[in-house]
């Protein structure tokens, strides 16, 4: 690449990185609003999430196009290509996390408009707090290229999974005890499942940060392996 081409490529990379962070900020706000809507059923909050979902979709298309064009023009190799590929996958996870937030608010609206005074069957706030912390940590890791912080996010997903399994057991027992409220119980299961899925998407992004920085694919290898790679690389640096 010429000096001019290199400068343009560096600008592309920074633009893509900034776009990812902006998209992540929108998704984080969507998740916060979705969690609030479960308890409040507030119409404005629900509508804000629905509108934000369209914005996330727009960001996804724009960033996908930008990355594809940058790859075609600059034909990056090694670490630069790794950056492009990793970010493409992160964009997909962010869009899907936005989709899960949309699912939550649609169910929240249904629960609050059912004509029966809404009372939560299980407390999902703790799992919600864990997931919001994962989002915050994953973007700190992304911004700082902090693989240790990314590995912490991978471990946090285990806590979210545990919360989800406990809720599923509780809600399933309610379903057996009072089958007349089957629809309501299933709606709560879907909400809890969506929160858990958002955690999964943050874990995916965290794993891709480790790959982005060090070229080591830690997917499907377990938390300890991700931590081992992150700490080992940190020590070498």
Automatic annotation (TrEMBL):
Residues 20-107, 125-209 form the PhoU domain. Its main location: cytoplasm. It is found in: Cytoplasm. It holds the Pfam family PhoU. GO terms for biological process: intracellular phosphate ion homeostasis; negative regulation of phosphate metabolic process; phosphate ion transport. InterPro entries: PhoU, PhoU-like_sf, PhoU_dom. Keywords: Cytoplasm, Phosphate transport, Transport. GO terms for cellular component: cytoplasm. Plays a role in the regulation of phosphate uptake. Homodimer. NCBIfam families: phoU_full (TIGR02135). Belongs to the PhoU family. This is Phosphate-specific transport system accessory protein PhoU. It comes from Taylorella asinigenitalis (strain MCE3). The lineage of its organism: Bacteria, Pseudomonadati, Pseudomonadota, Betaproteobacteria, Burkholderiales.
């Amino acid at each position: 690449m010429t000096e001019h081409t290199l400068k343009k490529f560096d600008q592309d990379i920074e633009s893509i990185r900034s776009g990812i962070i902006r998209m992540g900020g929108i998704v984080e706000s969507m998740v916060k609003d979705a969690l609030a809507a479960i308890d409040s059923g507030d119409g404005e909050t629900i509508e804000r999430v629905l509108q934000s979902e369209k914005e996330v979709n727009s960001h996804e298309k724009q960033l996908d196009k930008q990355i594809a064009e940058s790859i075609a023009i600059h034909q990056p190799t090694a670490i630069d290509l790794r950056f492009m590929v990793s970010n493409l996958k992160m964009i997909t996870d962010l869009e899907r996390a936005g989709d899960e937030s949309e699912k939550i608010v649609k169910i929240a609206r249904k629960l609050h408009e059912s004509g029966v005074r809404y009372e939560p069957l299980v407390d999902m706030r703790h799992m919600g707090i864990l997931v919001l912390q994962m989002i915050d940590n994953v973007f700190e890791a992304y911004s700082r290229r902090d693989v240790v912080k990314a590995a912490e996010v991978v471990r946090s997903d285990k806590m979210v999974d545990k919360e989800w399994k406990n809720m599923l057991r509780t809600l399933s027992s309610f379903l057996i005890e009072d089958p007349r409220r089957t629809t309501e119980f299933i709606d709560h299961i879907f909400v809890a499942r969506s929160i858990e899925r958002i955690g999964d998407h943050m874990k995916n992004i965290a794993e891709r940060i480790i790959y982005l920085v060090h070229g080591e694919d830690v997917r499907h290898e377990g938390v300890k392996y991700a931590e081992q790679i992150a700490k080992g690389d940190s020590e070498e640096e």
